[in-house]
Amino acid sequence: MSTLKDEVEVLRKIPLFAAMDPSKLKLLAYASDKVEYEDGQLLFRQGDVGDSAFIVLSGVADIVSETGGTEVVVAQLRDHALVGEMSVFCDIPRSATVRANGRLVALRIGKGYLLDLIKEFPELATRIIRELAFRLAKTTADLAASERAARH
Amino acid sequence: MERNLLKFIWKNSRLKQVWLLFVIVASMPFYFFSLELPKQIVNGPIQGRDFDAIDATQPFLRLTLPYGESMFGREIELFGGLQLDRIEMLFALCLLFMAFVFLNGWFKLYTNTYKGKLGEEVLRQLRYTLLDRVLRYRVARFRNLKGAEVASVIKDEVEPLGEFVGDAYSLPLFLGGQAITGLLFLFLQSVYFGLLTIAIVAFQIWLIPRMRRKLILLGRQRQLQARKLAGQVAETVDMAPDIHVNDMSNFTRARHFGLLQNILDIRFELYQRKFTVKYVNNLLMQFLSFLFYLLGGYFVITGRLDIGQLVAVIAAYKDLPGPIKGLIDYDQIRLMNEARYEQTIDSFRDDGLIAPELQSMPQQAVPRLTKGFDLDHVKLDDETGRTVLENVRLHVRPGDRLAIVTHGDDAARVAAGVLAGALVRLVQPASGTILLDGKPLEDLPESLTGRRVGYADANNYFPAGSINDNLLMVLKNRPADEKQRSSTAKRPTTAGMLNHVPPPADAEWIDYEDLGVEGKAGLDAHVARVLEVAGLTRQIQDLGLRGTVDPAKNREFSDKIVEVRREFRENAASLGVEGIVQSFHPDLYNSQATVGENLLFGTALDAAWSPNELPRNPTILSILDRNGLRTAFQEMGQRIAEARIELFGDLAPDSKIFETVADVTYEEIVRLKEIVGRLKMAERQEPQRQEATPKGKKGPQKLSDSDQLFRLAFDYCEAQSRFGVLDAETESKILAARNDLRQEIAGMEVPPVFFHDPDRYNPTASVLDNILLGRISSTVVDGKEKVLAAVQELVARTGISDGLLQAGLNFEMGNGGRRLSDQQRQKLHVARAILKKPDIIVFNEVLGAMDAGGRREIMARLLDGPLPGEPDFRPGFVVVLLDDELAERFDRVLTYSNGAFVETMRDDDDPQPDVMLDAAK
């Protein structure tokens, strides 16, 4: 059984939380539920209302895009990835389905808790903004690359 | 009812009063003998009179014919008696004396018991009559009636009457007899003194009632004030929440005190007058003795009366004051009770009572309705007396579906409500006629209207009792067994009393045949169908899951639950709940349960073993000591406190985290900080005495600081808090302690704990806990929902849903039914209206507490066919709608527009001129 301390260690490895105060990480770990999924179980489905964000502790999660009845695995998340935060911040439906690929252990942070934690610890907000910005930059770069590839 | 108390008592107990009098008179000779005997014992054998010779004998029990000498000129000896010597005579007389003592005691015992019983019988009859009146009041009267005041009259005010009944006739006759005898003796001794005595007594008889008039008046006032107090106290209890939210407690106190002061004032004046009367009474009697001595002495001295005569007069007079005083006291009690009785009767006046015939139990089957309602020129008033509908003409046949649409308009709702109430006699029409099946509704017995017309409105009151009791109550119209019914045939009544005895309430009152169900099983199925229609099945099953079942009373069901438990465990995978529930296993530590739960491994049957009490339970403490867990728990508590402080110690008091995440409050954290701080300080100063310093002035039960931390360990669950303070070693020690505890408890006579056992049903745990016999894992996503869904599936599959429904039906609804939600109670009222399968159902804005969607669903189900599986049951409906949209499901619609109800037929939008209903201008 993992204790809060173990969970804090795991959280610390996640870039998003790396520089956070250990006691605050502990609170984050405490606030979240550790959830276990069997192979093929869904964390959430595309189009659902988002009520929580997930941090993968161990295992692999497939990000599946469903368009017109066909499923395409667009990405795989491994240890320490944050997923599902977009719905929490923006109140938009889930943009993709996330499914456990093999046994998966994750921390689930309820929407309310995550927003409360951000209010309580502004530095966490900064971290998340930075993470999101990085992702945006990466997506923009990817998009430019794929456009370039398409032109050729 | 008889207005006079003595007449009332006589009419209701005359034979018994006569018998009582007879017994009292019959006991008198024995009493006098027992007074006479001691004199004989002293004079005879002790002083030795007539025993002059050593072996002299005297006859014992010699019997002569009374007045034999005067009739026949000589003594006629009936029995010569036994010749006994002095010692023998002493024994014989003493034994005789003892026999009379026994006999007198027995007479006393018999008459006292008889009087008591007689009083209670008449009291029961009086109370029963009063209750009968309450049941026959018209509904309108209850608007001005305070329940507590009525209760106070029926229960308390008539109570003293019971004590009076036994004495009502016997005492005055008895005392009167004594007084007259005394007077007679007096007259025989001296006519003048006799006349003197009569003059004084006559003065008393004239004076005392005059003095008492005010007394009676005060008694009445006191009774009224006491009744008012009962009403006020009940009101205060009922409005307790209002008092608190509006800061009215002080005003309420003042109001109560004012009344209490009134009662005191009245009581005080009452006492003053009562004792003044007593004083005057005594004075007059003593004045008589004064006259006797003065006048008698004067006459003796002046030689007009000889001394022997005066002594005889005074001796005769000696016996007089007792009975006279008794009579006067009796009269006082009689007057007070008379006043009390009149007051009681006055508050239960006869005006406008429903005739008893309308409530009598019918001897034949109650017919079905054929013609329905006919209203002609009916004028209806609302509660304030304002006319709201005039000239109503309306026909409702059984099978008609009539909707009354109000569009939420206030005037329309009042009018519709009054109209619906008039159909079930809750409102009396001001004029016009309402016919039901061709007969005036007013004259129809309640056995017809109450069974063939169903009614429900927004009312959601239920008396305390189980759901089942409250549901089936409406079917209990008369005992099903004809014999029990016929024994209730009325005997000739006297004095307006109910002389018949009602059938026992615990007889079978539900007539299965009339209801069209077969036996108890058929009734259960009928109830289940009704609940399904009313949308209550699932909710009641949930109550059943959360409720407890007594396996002693319900063997079959509890055995089945144990089977379901097994099935749940074995088929966890197919039910999709594998690994979600961590079962209780005697040899394993259940990580989803708290430390305390793991230690006890069962549920408490005794309050001293409940989770909160465990840390103080001496048996538990000694077992912890034995297994070396005391200090382990102490340390655990310390680390839990530290972990909590670390987690939440920096948060602001108003932080949202406390509301959402933390399982402790800010105040609790502050307290823990103080405790930990104090303990650290103490450790630094005096490490060895740390345990011995009980401090904790902030602790709720004055626990020492270390005890408070010790307690924390019991509620700790590693899987939830994950502080990492519970290691495998401690767990195995707890398991050892659990075994230890089990052995300890096995030695007790009454086990205070029911241990978790996979093969036994736990009567103290809920049905759900019995099925699971384990804890739902907190790490599984939606674990609880999945488990509940699986249990529901199992319940349906294994056929225990009926049993579960029954368990739920046994749920106690609490005071006023308040343990159920408003909407559940309203649904239950609707269910009751259908349950009796009436021919016409009147719904007046029912299910108002529900959301519109759910309400429409239920109404739609009702209109589709109220009871699935019973296509023949198609009652008529008169429904005052809350949802106008539903109108299209009805055959006929009354719409309120421009101050009048207008009827539109379905598929025909022209108003029908012959069904115009005018509202008041």
Which key features would you list for this structure?
heterodimer; A: 152 residues; alpha+beta; six-stranded antiparallel β-sheet; 6 strands; 32% strand; B: 921 residues; eleven-stranded mixed β-sheet; two-stranded antiparallel sheet; 19 strands; 9% strand; disordered C terminus
The helix-and-strand class of chain B reads alpha+beta
Q: What can be said about the biggest beta sheet of chain B?
A: 11 strands, mixed
Give the overall silhouette of chain B: extended
Percentage of residues in DSSP E strands of chain B: 5-15%
Task: Identify the CATH class of the domain at 373-472 and 815-919 in chain B.
Answer: Alpha Beta
Strand content of chain A: 25-35%
Radius of gyration of chain B: 41 Å
- Average pLDDT of chain B works out at 82
CATH fold name of chain A, please?
Answer: Jelly Rolls
Number of helices of chain B: 33
Topology of this protein?
The complex is a heterodimer of chains A (152) and B (921).
Chain A (H helix, E strand, L loop, with lengths): L3 H10 L8 H10 L1 E5 L4 E3 L7 E16 L2 E8 L4 E2 L1 H6 L6 E14 H10 L1 H30 L1
Antiparallel strand pairs in A: 1-6, 2-6, 3-4, 3-5, 3-6
Chain B lengths: L4 H42 L11 E3 L2 E2 L3 H5 L4 E3 L2 E3 L1 H51 L10 H11 L1 H10 L1 H20 L1 H48 L1 H6 L3 H53 L5 H12 L2 H27 L25 E9 L5 E10 L4 E5 L4 H14 L7 E6 L2 E2 L5 H7 E4 L10 H6 L9 H5 L25 H4 L3 H15 L3 H10 L8 H16 L1 H4 L5 E3 L11 H6 L1 E3 L13 H9 L3 H19 L7 H5 L5 H20 L19 H10 L3 H4 L6 H19 L6 E3 L11 H6 L1 E3 L6 H15 L3 H9 L12 H14 L4 E5 L7 H13 L11 E5 L11 E6 L2 E6 L11 E3 L2
Parallel strand pairs in B: 7-16, 7-17, 10-15, 15-16
Antiparallel strand pairs in B: 1-4, 2-3, 5-6, 5-8, 6-19, 8-9, 11-14, 12-13, 17-18, 18-19
Task: Walk me through this protein's architecture.
The complex is a heterodimer of chains A (152) and B (921). With 152 residues, chain A is an alpha+beta fold. Chain A is 43% helix and 32% strand. The mean pLDDT of chain A is 81. Chain A has five helices and six strands; from the N terminus they run ααβββββαβαα. In chain A, strands 1, 2, 3, 4, 5 and 6 form a six-stranded antiparallel β-sheet that branches. In chain B, 56% of the residues lie in helices and 9% in strands. At the A-B interface, helix 1, helix 2, strand 1 and helix 4 of A face helix 23, helix 24 and helix 27 of B.
